[in-house]
Amino acid sequence: MNNTITTRRQFIKTAGGTALGLLAVGSLTGAAFSCSSNKNQVAAETTQAAAAFPWPYQKIDPTAAAEAAYAAYYTAGCMYGGFEGIISQLREAIGAPYDSFPSTMMGYGGAGVAGWGTLCGALNGVAAAISLVSDPKVRSPLISEVFGWYGNTALPVYKPASPKFEDIPVSTADSQLCHVSVSTWCTKSGFSATSPERAERCAWLTASVVKYTAEVLNAQADGSFAASFVVPESVTGCLSCHGKNGMGNVHNTNQSTCINCHSDLGANHPGG
Amino acid sequence: MNNTITTRRQFIKTAGGTALGLLAVGSLTGAAFSCSSNKNQVAAETTQAAAAFPWPYQKIDPTAAAEAAYAAYYTAGCMYGGFEGIISQLREAIGAPYDSFPSTMMGYGGAGVAGWGTLCGALNGVAAAISLVSDPKVRSPLISEVFGWYGNTALPVYKPASPKFEDIPVSTADSQLCHVSVSTWCTKSGFSATSPERAERCAWLTASVVKYTAEVLNAQADGSFAASFVVPESVTGCLSCHGKNGMGNVHNTNQSTCINCHSDLGANHPGG
To answer: What is the pLDDT of residues A86-132, one digit of tens each?
Structure first.
């Protein structure tokens, strides 16, 4: 990942009058931008009762966090697993203010939020955890590192100490969306989304995401964090025309892929 | 919305060996499923220091919540605006435990989480707020009502009392994703994603989502909540073949649309 694209405000301009010949909605591109003019401002909700923000972080054991995430997945789902995998370790090590946080609320993000298949719940959970312990000025590079790794890595990579199955196939999602990630895995593995193997895959994946996130947070705590995610060539290829300096005035730097959705480029598009 | 499809575990089976002729990843379907076997279990993190879950709710003024959301958007972005629009009213009315919640953390969800264009931050924020005040058994129907309304409504519908612009165009996202929602609006309105008009649109949209969420939560508090979202015909049409009882063994009930991404049905698909 190039820090410069995640530590500054990112704007997109949409293509008006593009000649791509795509379906009306399918042709839309460009998403990564900030929606706040002063996002680093300490929010007005801070009161005497609230602990100083961000909450304190100290290095945690990535493997212990992954094991906690695996167990938490089977308690209240993937977002809860992602959040609680990290926060349980900090609660145990530090106590207050972590012992007052209502982690149960994070169950809402399961299956891409209440089953809607949007953002992978494990990612939503670790992003929330990163945010809780990070200065708002530095959280985005850390989150982007995890999101980029997730999209480009054959997952899961972490096998729990006491798994329900000995072997779980891996797949590369090329996306951060639950719908795409799970469906890609099901198609590759041959298991249905209703299967206990699929649930186990998501539990291992949640543990994998938490382990990587713990490593990222530990590196940040050490002052040694160096972003490794780079925008894939398949995306930079699109951006060579559709980036903010090219035709169509489209800017979409953070997505790990374009063609998952924009698969129909039309007969008039190069390569279409 | 049909309560029966959001209050039970929702599983998807993916199509193996489909003859749709789609690109490998583009052909994947099916997302809405639960990933927890006992999601309603009170999580193990509850300690003496934590307030009882869910946190107390009392009816709030939807317009006041919308105004708070509009202001919060310009403080720390769309997810913060969505969450804080609701929670600020409860903090003011109830005090503890709301005065200890670190709402600043919700800034992570801006622009589809750190600029990645995934889930609309306003939706992520209100879903988190709904979850904080709801028994896990009832949160999903409430969240689904807001998600369904968002996808099918020309937004924004709420004009703040002191807006930065007098007129903001509306658009129907047909999606819950930031990338699609913003790009649809930019294409329809002619404004770029870098424009102050686009930021104002997202601020009005955040206020609109919070107002609707407050109305949903108030109805739930009154015992009068009745879900109105129904899966669109465009989706039930797809599900007539790809639903869990049809060919391909695919189940994807909650998405408000399929063709935003699955626009290339291939020559061998009916209507392709």
So the answer is: 999 999 999 999 999 999 999 999 999 998 989 999 999 999 999 99
DSSP per-residue string spanning B2-44: -GGGTSS-------SS--S---TTTT---------SSTTSPPT
- A203-235 as b/e, with b when 16 or more CB fall inside 10 Å? bbbbbbbbbbbbbbbbebeeeebebebebbeeb
A243 — pLDDT class (breaks 50, 70, 90): low
Chain B residue closest to A16 (CA)?
Answer: B187
Residue B168 and residue B155 in contact, taking contact as beta carbons nearer than 8 Å: no
For residue B54, say if its preceding peptide bond is cis, omega within 30 degrees of 0.
Answer: yes
ipTM: 0.82
CA distance A43 to chain B (A): 6
Distance of residue A227 Cα from the nearest chain B Cα, in angstroms:
15
Instruction: Say whether A76 and B131 touch across the interface (CB within 8 A).
Output: no
Q: List the single best residue of B1, B7, B22, B36 to mutate versus A (max A Cβ within 10 A).
A: B36
A152 near B CB under 8 A: no
CA distance to A91, A200, B98, per residue, from A164 (Å):
27, 7, 39
Query: CA–CA separation, A146 vs A168, rounded Å?
Result: 21
pLDDT of B211-247, one tens digit each?
999 999 999 999 999 999 887 777 777 777 765 544 4
Residues from chain B contacting residue A33 (CB–CB below 8 Å): 111, 115, 182, 193-194
B contacts of A143 (beta carbons < 8 Å) = 108, 113-114
Is B186 in contact with A119 (Cβ distance < 8 A)? no
Per-residue pLDDT of chain B (272 residues; tens, 9 = 90+): 333 322 222 322 222 222 222 222 222 233 334 444 444 333 444 445 678 999 999 999 999 999 999 999 999 999 999 999 999 999 999 999 999 999 999 999 999 999 888 999 999 999 999 999 999 999 999 999 999 999 999 999 999 999 999 999 999 998 999 988 998 898 899 888 888 999 999 999 999 999 999 999 999 999 999 999 887 777 777 777 765 544 433 445 566 677 777 777 777 777 65
Taking chain B, what is the end-to-end CA distance rounded to the nearest angstrom?
A: 29
- Select from B103, B118, B137, B205 the residue whose CB has the most chain A CBs within 10 Å, as the one to mutate to test that interface: B118
Nearest Cβ partner of A114 from B105, B140, B180?
Answer: B140
Helix (H, G, I), strand (E, B) or coil at B82: helix
**Other Cβ atoms closer than 10 A to B157:** 16
Beta strands at B171-172 and B154-155: parallel, antiparallel or unpaired: antiparallel
Chain A neighbors of B115, CB-CB under 8 A: 6, 10, 31-34, 140, 144, 254
Rounded to whole angstroms, how far apart are CA atoms B171 and A17? 18
